[in-house]
Amino acid sequence: MFVFNDLTKKEEEFKVKNNSVKIYVCGPTVYDYGHLGHARSAIAFDIIRKFLIYLEYKVNYAMNVTDIDDKMIQRANKEKTTVKELAEKFTKYYFEDMKELNVLYPDKMIKATETIDYIIKIIKKLQEKGYTYETSDGVYFEVRKFKKYGRLIKLNKKDAKKSKDKSGEDKKDAQDFALWKKQKPNEPAWNSPWGKGRPGWHIECSAMILKHLGETIDIHGGGSDLIFPHHENEIAQSEAANGKPLARYWMHNNMVKVDDTKMSKSLGNFFTIRDILKKYNYRVIRFFLIGTHYRSPINFSEENLINSKNSLEKIDRFLEECKSRKDADKKSVDNFLKDFENAMKKDFDTPKAIAIIFNFIKELNKEEKGGKIAFDAFVKIDSVLGIMKTTKDKIPAEIKKLAEEREKARKNKDFKKADQLRNKIQKRGFLLEDSSEGVKIKQIS
Fold it and tell me: In this structure, is residue 1 part of a structural domain?
C-alpha cells in the first residue's frame, strides 16, 4: 500500500510495526456548528481508518477538539456564556452530526483542556533545552533555534523569516509562536510555572499526542489549511522536546470551495452539516465528498449534490434487483474486490474505487447476474465507503416524530397539515407509504 506523505511530498510505501497503526487527526474548534469543510476532513479520515480496519490493521484512532483558544473566548463573550458551556454545546452537536454522516466515533476523543498537565510538561522540557523565552504576555518557542523548521511546508530560510505569528508584541522574532499565554481579564486560566494562563494553540496537539499515543505516531492528519503554521509548529516543538519524529506520515485533505473560494466560518460562505442534512440524505453527502480524491479541492454546488444523488439511485436500483438475480461468477466478484482494494491501496483513491463499482454494475446488468455473492461483495466494500443501502434503512428520530405528527393530522382530518408534513419528510430524503399495516418510512437517496 502507498500513501502520499506531505513531509516528503511523494507517495511512499506504508510500513508500520506489528500491524498496528496510531492515527491522530486535528478536529474542530468547537465554537460553532460544523460545516461541510469539517465533514470533508472527518469523512476522508473515516474512510482511511475503515480501509485500514478492512485490511485487518489494528487501528488506534485519536481526534481532538480544541475547546480553548481565542475564537472560543470571543464567541463565549459574544454569547454571554462560559467557554466551557460553549465547548460542551458545540462538541455535542459536532458528534451528533458525525453520527448522522456515518462517521465512526474516535477510539480516543481528546479535549485540549484535559491535557494541561502534558502541555506544561512539554513547555518545561523545551525551556530546559533552551528553546523558549518568556515575555510580559507569555512563553514563546524560538523558531531560529530549531534548525529543521520549515520541512513540512518546504520553507527556505528567507521565506521562514517572512512567516509571522500574530500573537505577542515583544517577541524576539515575528515567526516565534506562543506556547503559553498569560492570563488576561475575564479569560479562563490554569496555574503554571509562568503564572496563570492558558496554552497556545499549537502546543495543545503536541501534548495530546504525547499523552495518548506516545512520542511518535504513524499518521498525522488534518485539513491542508493546517499545514502551516499549525502542523509545522507541532513538528518543531514536539521534535525539539522529544528528539524523535512526531509522525511518520503526514496526510492532509484539501478544501471544500464555494465559487473557487475556501469554505470557512471566518469568510461567512459556509454551509452547516445540519442545513445540508435537512435537504440531502447523509449518503449523498458522503458520495459527493468521496467522488473527488481527498488531496484535491472540491467545489460545492447544488448541481454536484444532485448528480451524487442520481448516481446513488443507480447503485440502489442495482442492489435491489441484485438480490433476486442468479449468482455472478465467483471469479468476476473476486476480481472486483481485488480491483477495489488496489485502487484504495494507491493513496486511498476513492474516485477510482467508485468508477470500479459502476463498471462492475454495468457488467452485471449486461449479464443480468448478481445474487448473494455480488450483494455480499458490495456489503464488504461499503464497510469502507458507507454510501450504500446494504442494511436496513436508518430512520432518524426527527423523521419518525414528523411521521407521527402527520398521522395525527390525518386522523384529525387536517389534510393540509398532513400534506405539508409529508413534503417536509420527503425533502429530508424519506418517503411515506400508507398501507393496511400502517405507515412505512422508506429512505430515498
Answer: no
